[in-house]
Fold:
Amino acid sequence: MSQRRVAYVLKMYPRFSETFVLNELLELERQGVYLHVFSLKRPNDGIAHADVRQVRARVTYVPESLPALVWAQRAMLRRRPLRLLRILLRAVRKRRFESAKHVLQAGALAPTVLEDGFDHVHAHFASAATSVALHASRLTDVPYSLTAHAKDIFLDSVRPSDLARKLGSARFAVTVSDFNAQYLRPLANGTRIVRIYNGLDLERFTRNGAPRDRPPLVLGLGRLIEKKGFADLVRACAILAADATDFRCAIIGKGPLADELQELVDRLGVADRVSLLGPLPREGLLRLYPRASVFAAPCVVGADGNRDGLPTVLIEAMALGVPVVATPVTGIPELVEHEVTGLLVPERDPAALAAAIRRLLTDDQLVQRLTAAARARVEDRFDLERNVAELRRLFEESPA
Structure:
């Protein structure tokens, strides 16, 4: 079969928090897929993973301003003017001005899809990127698909009818957990929903037996936003400190709740135990993970419905032999099985979280049993090469 050519539509590339996208792009290229990334926004993280430099795909940034977007329609107006205008006018008549913007974004990238002979268009997140992929497919007759995660599914502002429209028009849809797949299938209008877990390069993420830090390190990692539950982790640390438990905690990441979390640390009197260290690139995390005695992911469902799908950082920690404690939010129990591959506690329960951390800090036999089973679970379900090969086969089933 000839080399598949897939156009990837992403809201922002590269995005520091989306290592799962980076992993996927690199492995697809390793497996022989030709990629071109179309990013709707330029990166604004101010920091990037070194692995980004290994991606060979051309990256095109779609114009962001309205005048530039209108000017970018020249090529499509020459090729398929009636089709472009019909789709655009439909959005304007229904007063869907955000949709009209998505049509223009699709019109900006569609000529490249046609001229470079792409077989397929794929988008990550069932929000803006998928809207653009849908319109690009209508403009070019090239089929599209999407990967749905969590915020793009469960946020209160997501309209089920809009999600159903995107799913129903897709060649297929991927999602990252069985939990998500069960939620999406009734909305999919017969479109095939395929669960493919985010994977890891298991040769790179392997247990190396590095010594743990003293005092023991409790590690949290993620964006500083409500759904990560870091406020509960800080409160759990205050409980542990009051019990004279020997530990320190490092929370790695950045986000809008940074100041609020630091105020909580100060108010609870645990500034000598809990540090907010800002973001670290993957190469720094690979050195930090093995020093941790516990990895904590106390995820919660946010007030707006936002939640995690299945955090990649949990997979990474478990692959590297760090015992984990998490909450049973969305797909997490598919990875962290209570008392088998890790410990699960109820969300928004700092006391239960503290008790679980204490167990992992003090029970060596428990840790050995959990981490061995955790590595086996990751090897069985989260191997990057195997999981991306399944996605590649789906691309190959799409008509060339």
